[in-house]
Amino acid sequence: MSSIEAMTVQGIRSFGPDDKDKQLIKFNPPLTLILGPNGTGKTTIIECLKYMTTGELPPGGKMGAAFIHDPKVAGEVEVKAQVRLKFHDVRGQQCFAVRSLTATQKKTRVEFKNLEGVIKRLLPSGEWQSTSSKCTETDREMVSLLGVSKAVLENVIFCHQEDSNWPLGEGKALKEKFDDIFASTRYVKALEQIRKFRNEQSQTIREYQAEIKYLKQNKDKAIEIKNNLTDREERFEAAKNSVDQITEKLEPVLTKLRLIQDKEEEIRQVCMIIEKLKSERDQMERGQKELKKNIKKEFEGSTEELKRELAEFETKVDQMDRTLLQNQKRLADLESRLEKLNQDRHKLLTEQGRLEQDAERHSNDIKTRDHRVSRLAEEYQLPGFSGSITDAHSTRLSKNLDEIGNRILEQARTERAKCEDQEDVVQKDIDRCRSNKTKLETEQSLKQDRVRKNRDEIRRINGELSQVDASAGQLKDIDRKIRAVEMNLGEAEKSVDLDKLKSELQTLQSESSASTKQIRTLDSELSRLNQESSVRTEVEVLLKDKTVKEEQVRRLKVKNEDTLKHLIGSLPSEFYGKAVEKYQREHSRRLRDNTEQLQQMKRDATKLETVRKHEQELLQKKSEEVRGYEQKINTVTHGSDFGDGLESIEKKLQKCQDDKGQLVAIKYMFGKYIDKLRGANADCPLCHRPFDEQSEVDDLISEMETKLNLVPEKLDRLEQTIVESKSEFENWLQVKPFLEVKRKCKDSEIPEIEKRIQLLNLQIKKLNDEITEKEESVEVDSHDEQLAKSLMPDMTQMDRLQTELQDLSRKIGSLSEKLTSESTRSFKEVQAEREELQLQLDHTNQMLDHKRQKANDHSAQLQELKAQLNELRSSKLRIETNLQQRVRLEQTKDEMEKTNDALESEIRDAREKSIPIQEEIDDLCQKKEQVTKLKDRQYEEKKEQFNKVQENAKQLALIQAEIDRYVKNGCAEKLSSCQKKMSEIQSEASDLSQKKSTLSGSINKVHQELSEQKVQKRELSDNLLLRKGNEDIILKAGQIQKEEEKLGGLDAKNLTVERNRLQKDYEKFNNEKDLAKRRQQVLEGEIFAFRKDLKDDMYKDAEVKHKDKFIQLKTTELANSDLDKYYKALDATIMAYHSQKMADINKTIRELWRNTYKGNDIERIEIRSDEDDGSGAAKLRRSYRYRVVMVKGGTELDMRGRCSAGQKVLASLIIRIALAETFCLNCGVLALDEPTTNLDRENIESLAYALVEIIKSRHKQRNFQLVVITHDEDFVELLGRSDYVDYFFRVSKNEFGCSRLTQTSVQDLHSK
Fold it and tell me: What pLDDT band is residue 784 in, cutting at 50, 70 and 90?
């Protein structure tokens, strides 16, 4: 049996991480006591034990981060923790377990990590065997070594204080914990899985039986299909040979027909070429006539002379073009030079304006500087700045302003330092007073805490004294109750005859067994009746197959219904294949006739298309000529009327030339007027009136010069406009000959060609409509023929499916006759009889349970009386102990009251001393505030004065910098130079304008002569084109004659007769071939259908499937029989185990409750495990609902929600002890964390006596260990009075807040 021996803790919660902080605790059998106030780390010991044995962290541990000593408290980035446990496993071998952890402080969180764990075992040979967590799962290994389940370790042995009341928790959570403790969940699941799998196997067996019969039918059907397939393949080969023989006869006929078609095609091509050449010749003749009309005078000389005349014209025109080009280049050069002068003049005007503005700004800056220097010298009382101001005065004033600013800053620093010294003196006095006040308040707070603790202790002592006084008079009453209980116990032992009760139980057990046997007999009969369901299953399979085939027929009919109605007109009642075959023969003959007619129509359409194409080409050529003329004209006229546009350009050109003459005259006159006005005794040039003042003369000259400066720019614009207008006028004259040619083409030639094309379009459209109708007819007939061919496989399959449906209907009728059962009773009658027997069995079992309950109640009554007797004796012992402690409690109370009086007097004195100190602090703070305000006010005044001086100096420096920059850049000299250059540019521009006017007149004259020469050149070119066209017409006539000679050697009439004879032979052989192919298609469709059936899952490998399914049926039946035996055996075992364990647990609970609980409102408590009443599948699965009940006056009530906090704690503690008694056979360890929580003094004492009794009864067991953790010294003292413990461990904290374990003798508590 397993036990724990010792444990060391380091770096867990309040246990420090250093080696000096490592703490050791030894667990000695049978009792280990751990005592300490709240917050010292007692519960951490339980958490470490639970962590070592199960690997589970405590509740709310934040994934382990809160379980380790906080790195912030330790002042480290990483804290390492370790727990070591020394124990003995279930075989008594000594073992060590070590688990290590780390906690690392990150930026916002603490990172937790488990390190490698190690388990060591001492082997019989004396060697140690180590197992690492890298090799095996440590948690599972620890559970195996201790010999108890993980659920018992978590919820019973090492239950955390926060989870200690789980037996009275919510129903679902309670069920989960009990199921884990009983370890029944996996067995119940296994039972459910067996039951479920057994039912599935039973259903599978019924399905296999039905499938065996169905597979046998498929096997027979597959053999039949294979025989039919062999027959059809032989007939298909014969039909294929017949088609090959007919094809050999048809091949010579087809060869001759192709030769005749090639000759006919050759004749058609020659005819088309002749028609095309004739059409081209006619078109050329019409073109020649039109060209003659355009020529005013036909050239009389030879063609060579005409070409020579045209070449001389071209030479003359080229010479004129070169002359024109040279003049244009000279004009462009003059315009470029004039444009450059204008640009230079604009730049100089801009520069002159800018320099004049800079001069004016310079004058203003000097005035501003002089005024500012005088004002600042007067403001700051500086001597030497009267009279005229120079640059030296400005520089000297800037230096004086800098000196004034420095003096202001020095004064500000001196005054600020003086105020800060006063602040430091006042602050030191304030700190001294506050230090004295804080010292008094700290002493006062410590004394108040001490008085408060003494008062709490006095109240506790008064309560204990009251209990002692109240219990002193109860001794006689307790003695009387003890005698009464002993008497009742004797009477209860004689009240029930146990032998008679056992006999009745045996009788009821026999009746239950007999009923169970009858039920099994009825189950066998129900099984026989159930076998009839296999025939029904077979019928269902056949019906399903019939439905599938009917659905296939329906789908094929729906799929092809519209096609059949379209081809035949209505759906045939039967023999779909023959109806479609008849339609296919008739349709093929009609398709051949329509195809021949269509070919003839296409040949006629090709001839008309050739003629129309030639006419369209001619129309396109004429249209392109017209578009070319229009493009040339529109390039010049831009869409406006030619006559109006030409007149408008002439007027515009004349107007520009007149304006130019006016501007030249104005320039000359204004120049004369200005020269005259600048002379002595000037008068008005127009009215000759003398001027009164010279300023009037200057104003007039300025106005005339301004207008005169604008004349060159206006002349430039007019010159540009005149050049553009002349160029545009010449372009208009050049396109005048094109207007006549375009008008002639548009009015006469193009309409005639369009009329001929329109007539051809009507003929072609009519013929194309006929061809389209015939093509649609042929296409429809061809499509219908393809539809008929595609229908043949589906039609064959439909005929076969209808035959198979008739066979299935006969089989279903035959099986339906076999469903009549020979049994005298129906399935429902047998089922009803079984249910009646089941009710009788349930009643017998209820009587059996009642008798057993009666026996249990009698035992419980005896136990209850014994528990009452033990309780009364414990109360008597406790009262006697309390009376001995009365004197000690009264002395302690008097000492604490005297101490409190002295402390309260000292607190009053401290309060009186702190009042004058606070008043002095207030006065000093007010004085400091006044000094601070004075310092800030003086600093702001000096700062304002300094900023003003700095701003004045800055403004003066900026103005002086602008003055210096103007002088340094020499802006006055630049202005004079600019005015001189302006006069030179104006003189040069006037000379260039006169040269440009002369050159423009020469260019206009050359343009006019060039336009006249180009019209004469066009006349000569048309004469040359006329002669070339006549030569082309003669050439076309020769080509037509040559093609007609080719056509004379072909006999078209005999070719037609031979083609008709061969066509008849072709149709005869082709009909025979089509008939043979249709037979071949029908056979091919049947072969395809048979092969498709054999590939279907129903017939594919049918013999193998039948054999495999038969083997599966027999093996499944044997396996299902074994499953039934396993299910019954496991179900009975689970029931027996659960009933036995629950009885043991409740027995222990009753004994502990009667010995511990001192109230009289609850007689006993029990755990009830009721079978869960589910529905459906849950009803068949064995499941239990757990609840804790209390018995009050013979009535059972659920304890959850009806008990006090103390009763809840006590009940949970007793249930855990009972579970440990029952399930911890291999591990005798039990840890109780704060078991006295919420218990009154009386129940605390009774709990101590009950635990002593448990220790007394089990202390001889070598591995029994009870670990009690508490803060109640009295509870430890009560447990220490037994002879089973000599010392306890006291838990405390050192000055650094780390937990310490100190082994202390129990006698030290008795001495207090």
Answer: confident
Quote the radius of gyration of the chain (alpha carbons, Å). 65
Dist CA 580 CA 572 (whole Å): 10
Of 51, 138, 1309, 99, residue with least CA distance to 43? 51
What residues contact 855, with CB distance under 8 A and at least 6 apart?
Answer: 498, 501, 505
Share of the chain above pLDDT 90, in %: 3
1184 strand-pairing partners: 1171
Please enumerate in sequence order all residues whose Cβ is within 8 A of that of 1151, keeping only pairs 6 or more positions apart, or say none.
863, 867
- Tens of pLDDT, residue by residue over 1235-1282, are 888 888 888 888 888 888 888 877 777 668 889 999 888 888 888 877
Beta strand extents in 1112-1262 (DSSP E only): 1164-1171, 1184-1192, 1195-1198, 1229-1233
Q: Does the pLDDT at position 826 exceed 60?
A: no
State the average pLDDT over residues 358-380: 75
Q: What is the 3-state secondary structure (H, E, C) of 404-424?
A: HHHHHHHHHHHHHHHHHHHHH
User: What's the angle, vertex CA 805, arms to CA 799 and CA 806, rounded to 5?
Assistant: 95
Is 662 exposed, middle or buried (CB count within 10 Å of its CB: 0-12, 13-18, 19+)? exposed
Q: In this structure, are residues 1214 and 1149 in contact, taking their beta carbons and an 8 Å threshold?
A: yes
Tokens 């004739």, located at residue:
278
| Average pLDDT value for the chain | 76
Peptide bond into 124 cis (omega under 30): no
Q: pLDDT value at position 1180?
A: 46
Phi, psi of 127 (to 5 degrees): -95, 155
CA distance 54 to 67: 15
Contact assessment for residue 103 and residue 71, using Cβ atoms and an 8 Å cutoff: yes
pLDDT band at 1176 (very low <50, low <70, confident <90, very high): very low
Q: Does position 1181 have pLDDT exceeding 60, yes or no?
A: no
The neighbour count for residue 1299, using CB atoms within 10 Å, is 23
Tell me the mean pLDDT in the region 1022-1034.
Answer: 73
* Dihedral angle over CA of 1147, 1152, 1154, 1160, nearest 10: -120
**Is residue 809 predicted with pLDDT exceeding 70?**
yes
Per the listing, tokens 């059936």 go with 1093
Q: Convert the pLDDT of each residue in 955-965 to its tens digit.
A: 777 777 777 77
Question: At residue 85, what are phi and psi to the nearest 5 degrees?
Answer: -130, 130
Helix 533-567 crosses helix 750-816 at what angle (to 10 degrees)?
Answer: 160
CA distance 1091 to 1099: 10
Distance CA 1098, CA 1105 (A): 10
Query: In this predicted structure, which of 12-26, 362-376, 848-862, 1261-1275 has the lowest mean pLDDT?
Result: 848-862
Per the CB < 8 A criterion, the answer to whether 401 and 952 are in contact is yes
* Sequence-ordered list of residues with C-beta below 8 angstroms from that of 643, at least 6 positions apart, any chain: none
914-972 residue pLDDT tens: 778 777 777 878 877 887 887 777 777 777 777 777 777 777 777 777 777 777 777 77
SS3 readout for 992-1006: HHHHHHHHHHHHHHH
CA–CA gap between residue 878 and residue 872 (Å, rounded): 10
Q: Starting at the edge strand that comes first in sequence, how are the strands of the sheet with 1164-1171 ordered? A: 1164-1171, 1184-1192, 1195-1198
Sign of dihedral through CA atoms 474, 476, 480, 482? positive
Q: Across residues 986-1014, what is the average pLDDT?
A: 69
**Residues 181, 156 contacting (CB under 8 angstroms):** yes
Beta bridge mates, 79: 103
Task: Residue 523: name the closest of 276, 833, 935 by CA.
Answer: 833
251 membership: H or E segment, kind and range = helix 185-294
Compute, in degrees rounded to 10, the torsion defined by CA atoms 60, 63, 64, 69. -70
